[in-house]
Design goal:
Helix content is about 25%, strand content about 30%. By secondary structure, it is of the alpha/beta class.
Length: about 220
Protein backbone atom coordinates (compact mmCIF):
# COMPACT_ATOMS: atom_id res chain seq x y z
CA UNK A 1 0.00 0.00 0.00
CA UNK A 2 2.66 2.53 1.01
CA UNK A 3 4.47 2.25 -2.33
CA UNK A 4 1.54 4.05 -3.95
CA UNK A 5 2.02 7.05 -1.64
CA UNK A 6 5.68 7.81 -2.22
CA UNK A 7 6.84 9.90 -5.15
CA UNK A 8 10.14 11.36 -6.22
CA UNK A 9 10.19 15.00 -5.18
CA UNK A 10 9.16 17.59 -7.70
CA UNK A 11 7.97 20.69 -5.88
CA UNK A 12 6.59 21.18 -2.41
CA UNK A 13 3.90 23.67 -3.32
CA UNK A 14 1.06 21.37 -4.29
CA UNK A 15 -2.36 21.17 -2.75
CA UNK A 16 -2.64 23.87 -0.10
CA UNK A 17 -6.00 24.99 -1.50
CA UNK A 18 -7.40 21.63 -0.41
CA UNK A 19 -5.71 21.48 2.99
CA UNK A 20 -7.63 20.40 6.10
CA UNK A 21 -5.76 20.43 9.43
CA UNK A 22 -7.09 19.42 12.82
CA UNK A 23 -4.94 19.17 15.93
CA UNK A 24 -5.45 16.75 18.80
CA UNK A 25 -3.36 17.28 21.95
CA UNK A 26 -2.65 13.85 23.41
CA UNK A 27 -0.84 12.07 26.21
CA UNK A 28 0.94 13.12 29.39
CA UNK A 29 3.45 15.25 27.47
CA UNK A 30 0.70 17.10 25.59
CA UNK A 31 1.91 16.07 22.15
CA UNK A 32 0.34 17.73 19.13
CA UNK A 33 -1.07 15.08 16.81
CA UNK A 34 -2.24 16.41 13.45
CA UNK A 35 -4.90 15.00 11.16
CA UNK A 36 -4.02 16.40 7.73
CA UNK A 37 -6.26 15.72 4.75
CA UNK A 38 -7.25 16.79 1.27
CA UNK A 39 -10.63 18.45 1.74
CA UNK A 40 -11.76 17.39 -1.74
CA UNK A 41 -10.98 13.65 -1.61
CA UNK A 42 -10.80 13.42 2.21
CA UNK A 43 -7.72 11.23 1.92
CA UNK A 44 -5.28 12.08 4.67
CA UNK A 45 -2.52 11.20 7.08
CA UNK A 46 -2.07 11.25 10.83
CA UNK A 47 1.13 12.99 11.90
CA UNK A 48 2.68 12.12 15.28
CA UNK A 49 0.05 9.75 16.71
CA UNK A 50 1.50 10.00 20.19
CA UNK A 51 -1.21 8.59 22.47
CA UNK A 52 -4.96 8.31 23.05
CA UNK A 53 -5.84 6.55 19.78
CA UNK A 54 -9.58 6.72 20.50
CA UNK A 55 -9.48 10.53 20.63
CA UNK A 56 -7.47 10.69 17.41
CA UNK A 57 -9.90 8.28 15.74
CA UNK A 58 -12.83 10.43 16.85
CA UNK A 59 -11.37 13.43 14.99
CA UNK A 60 -10.61 11.30 11.93
CA UNK A 61 -14.16 9.95 11.90
CA UNK A 62 -15.72 13.37 12.53
CA UNK A 63 -14.15 14.68 9.33
CA UNK A 64 -14.64 11.44 7.42
CA UNK A 65 -10.93 11.18 6.63
CA UNK A 66 -9.68 8.11 4.79
CA UNK A 67 -6.34 7.49 6.50
CA UNK A 68 -3.61 6.59 4.01
CA UNK A 69 -0.61 6.70 6.34
CA UNK A 70 0.61 7.25 9.88
CA UNK A 71 3.71 9.43 9.89
CA UNK A 72 5.97 10.17 12.86
CA UNK A 73 8.33 13.13 12.69
CA UNK A 74 10.54 11.05 14.97
CA UNK A 75 10.42 7.90 17.03
CA UNK A 76 10.29 9.12 20.63
CA UNK A 77 7.54 7.46 22.63
CA UNK A 78 5.32 10.52 22.96
CA UNK A 79 4.97 10.68 19.17
CA UNK A 80 4.28 7.00 18.40
CA UNK A 81 2.36 5.34 21.25
CA UNK A 82 -0.93 5.32 19.32
CA UNK A 83 0.55 3.80 16.16
CA UNK A 84 -0.26 0.17 16.93
CA UNK A 85 -4.00 0.66 17.49
CA UNK A 86 -4.45 3.18 14.68
CA UNK A 87 -2.58 0.92 12.30
CA UNK A 88 -4.97 -1.91 13.16
CA UNK A 89 -7.99 0.38 12.88
CA UNK A 90 -7.17 1.93 9.51
CA UNK A 91 -4.85 -0.68 7.97
CA UNK A 92 -2.49 2.20 7.19
CA UNK A 93 1.30 2.03 6.81
CA UNK A 94 3.60 3.57 9.41
CA UNK A 95 6.30 5.85 7.98
CA UNK A 96 9.35 7.51 9.59
CA UNK A 97 12.64 9.04 8.49
CA UNK A 98 15.31 6.69 7.20
CA UNK A 99 17.64 7.02 10.20
CA UNK A 100 14.87 6.76 12.79
CA UNK A 101 14.19 3.02 12.77
CA UNK A 102 16.40 2.31 15.79
CA UNK A 103 14.77 5.09 17.80
CA UNK A 104 11.34 3.60 17.11
CA UNK A 105 12.59 0.20 18.21
CA UNK A 106 13.39 1.60 21.66
CA UNK A 107 10.31 3.82 22.08
CA UNK A 108 8.57 1.52 24.54
CA UNK A 109 11.68 1.28 26.72
CA UNK A 110 12.06 5.06 26.63
CA UNK A 111 8.48 5.45 27.88
CA UNK A 112 9.06 2.99 30.71
CA UNK A 113 12.28 4.79 31.65
CA UNK A 114 10.30 8.01 32.12
CA UNK A 115 7.67 6.19 34.18
CA UNK A 116 4.87 5.98 31.63
CA UNK A 117 2.76 2.97 30.73
CA UNK A 118 3.70 1.96 27.21
CA UNK A 119 2.29 -0.21 24.46
CA UNK A 120 4.40 -1.85 21.80
CA UNK A 121 5.24 0.15 18.68
CA UNK A 122 5.26 -1.57 15.27
CA UNK A 123 8.35 -1.24 13.15
CA UNK A 124 7.96 1.17 10.22
CA UNK A 125 6.57 -0.09 6.93
CA UNK A 126 8.74 2.35 5.00
CA UNK A 127 11.55 4.82 5.61
CA UNK A 128 11.33 8.32 4.17
CA UNK A 129 14.17 10.23 2.52
CA UNK A 130 14.76 13.95 2.24
CA UNK A 131 12.86 15.40 -0.70
CA UNK A 132 10.36 12.58 -1.12
CA UNK A 133 6.69 13.43 -1.29
CA UNK A 134 3.75 11.73 0.35
CA UNK A 135 0.76 12.28 -1.91
CA UNK A 136 -2.76 12.06 -0.49
CA UNK A 137 -5.56 13.28 -2.68
CA UNK A 138 -4.43 16.60 -4.11
CA UNK A 139 -1.96 17.20 -1.29
CA UNK A 140 1.77 16.68 -1.58
CA UNK A 141 3.61 16.57 1.74
CA UNK A 142 7.30 17.13 1.11
CA UNK A 143 9.67 15.26 3.44
CA UNK A 144 12.43 17.42 4.91
CA UNK A 145 15.33 15.82 6.76
CA UNK A 146 15.68 17.66 10.08
CA UNK A 147 18.20 15.92 12.37
CA UNK A 148 19.22 17.16 15.79
CA UNK A 149 16.53 16.19 18.27
CA UNK A 150 16.97 12.68 16.90
CA UNK A 151 19.08 11.34 14.01
CA UNK A 152 16.25 10.60 11.58
CA UNK A 153 13.91 13.42 12.54
CA UNK A 154 11.88 14.76 9.63
CA UNK A 155 9.51 17.65 9.02
CA UNK A 156 6.63 17.66 6.54
CA UNK A 157 6.02 20.69 4.34
CA UNK A 158 2.81 21.39 2.43
CA UNK A 159 2.36 24.83 0.93
CA UNK A 160 3.00 27.38 3.66
CA UNK A 161 2.60 24.89 6.50
CA UNK A 162 5.33 22.80 8.09
CA UNK A 163 4.80 20.05 10.64
CA UNK A 164 8.06 20.28 12.51
CA UNK A 165 7.94 17.79 15.37
CA UNK A 166 10.38 18.66 18.14
CA UNK A 167 12.78 20.90 16.23
CA UNK A 168 11.69 24.13 17.92
CA UNK A 169 8.84 25.56 19.95
CA UNK A 170 7.58 29.04 20.75
CA UNK A 171 9.74 29.12 23.89
CA UNK A 172 12.75 26.98 23.04
CA UNK A 173 14.34 24.30 20.90
CA UNK A 174 14.18 20.53 21.05
CA UNK A 175 16.31 18.54 23.48
CA UNK A 176 19.45 16.95 22.11
CA UNK A 177 20.50 14.84 25.10
CA UNK A 178 18.66 11.72 23.94
CA UNK A 179 20.51 8.93 22.08
CA UNK A 180 21.40 10.11 18.59
CA UNK A 181 20.72 13.76 19.39
CA UNK A 182 23.09 16.50 18.25
CA UNK A 183 22.90 20.18 19.15
CA UNK A 184 25.10 21.09 16.17
CA UNK A 185 22.73 19.26 13.83
CA UNK A 186 19.71 20.90 15.45
CA UNK A 187 21.15 24.39 14.99
CA UNK A 188 21.99 23.56 11.37
CA UNK A 189 18.45 22.30 10.78
CA UNK A 190 16.92 25.47 12.22
CA UNK A 191 19.24 27.90 10.45
CA UNK A 192 19.53 26.19 7.07
CA UNK A 193 16.10 24.60 6.71
CA UNK A 194 13.51 26.33 8.90
CA UNK A 195 14.84 29.89 8.64
CA UNK A 196 15.11 29.59 4.84
CA UNK A 197 11.39 28.95 4.43
CA UNK A 198 9.12 31.88 3.45
CA UNK A 199 8.47 34.11 6.49
CA UNK A 200 4.71 33.49 6.48
CA UNK A 201 5.15 29.71 6.66
CA UNK A 202 3.18 28.46 9.67
CA UNK A 203 5.11 26.12 11.95
CA UNK A 204 3.02 23.37 13.54
CA UNK A 205 5.28 22.07 16.35
CA UNK A 206 5.16 18.81 18.26
CA UNK A 207 4.18 20.65 21.46
CA UNK A 208 2.66 24.06 22.10
CA UNK A 209 1.10 26.64 19.84
CA UNK A 210 1.75 27.40 16.18
CA UNK A 211 3.93 30.32 15.06
CA UNK A 212 5.43 31.62 11.82
CA UNK A 213 8.93 31.34 10.45
CA UNK A 214 9.23 35.12 10.80
CA UNK A 215 8.44 34.82 14.51
CA UNK A 216 10.94 31.98 14.85
CA UNK A 217 13.68 34.09 13.28
CA UNK A 218 13.00 36.89 15.76
CA UNK A 219 12.95 34.51 18.72
CA UNK A 220 16.00 32.41 17.91
CA UNK A 221 18.34 34.14 15.44
CA UNK A 222 20.40 35.73 18.24
CA UNK A 223 20.42 32.63 20.41
CA UNK A 224 21.73 30.07 17.93
Amino acid sequence: MWQELLLVAGGCDGGEDWLLIDKVIVGPLQTNCYVVACSETMEGVIIDPGDEPSRIAAVVNYHGVKVKALIATHGHFDHVMAVEKLKELYNAPFLVGRLEEEIVRHAKHQALFFGFIASSVPQPDALLDDGQEVEVGKLKLCVMSAPGHSPGHIALLVGEHIFSGDILFENGVGRTDFPGGSYADLVRTIKERIFNLPPDTLIHPGHGREFTVAEARLMFSRLL
